[in-house]
Specification:
Blueprint: H1 22-34, H2 47-56, H3 60-69, H4 73-84, H5 88-105, H6 108-133
Helix pairs in contact: 1-3
């Protein structure tokens, strides 16, 4: 028996319609329709989904129908923007809210690990450039 490998895009991904969570919602809607969603929840069963769908003012059924019918993310994004009637200011505010929620609800261990890793990478780059340009470079 094959292990279910479905994994939706990240909640802060804005690839579909420029709105956080919509790419993830799209993946889940398509997987639910295909019966391959695994342990993930879609629509009314997911508090994330209901929040995003409520913001868009689109039902889970209508969204899923569009996500399955329109298999191109750019075209689906255009459909979403046409049907949600949200202004760019409303979308920006929603995106900020979603990013903040994600940072506050991501397990602190993972968030801390990512911050430390990025900090170390940045520090290593600084050390290299300092070494290279301030006297310890290959020309010595």
């Amino acid at each position: 028996m094959a292990k279910n490998t479905f994994r939706p895009r990240d909640i802060i991904n804005k690839e579909v319609a420029g709105i956080c969570g919509v790419a993830r919602l799209t993946d889940k809607a398509r997987a639910a329709h295909a019966g391959e969603i695994g342990s993930y929840k879609y629509g009314a069963e997911s508090t994330q989904d209901t929040g995003i769908l409520s913001f868009l003012d689109i039902s889970a059924e209508a969204f899923q129908d569009a996500a399955v019918r329109i298999d191109n993310d750019v075209k689906l994004g255009a459909w979403i923007l046409d049907n949600s009637k949200k202004s760019s200011e409303e979308i920006s505010a929603f995106n900020r809210k979603m990013k903040s929620w994600w940072q506050n609800n991501m397990p602190s261990d993972d968030f801390s690990k990512r911050r430390r890793k990025l900090g170390h990478e940045k520090e290593n780059r600084r050390r290299f450039w300092h070494w290279y340009f301030f006297g310890w470079g290959p020309w010595r």
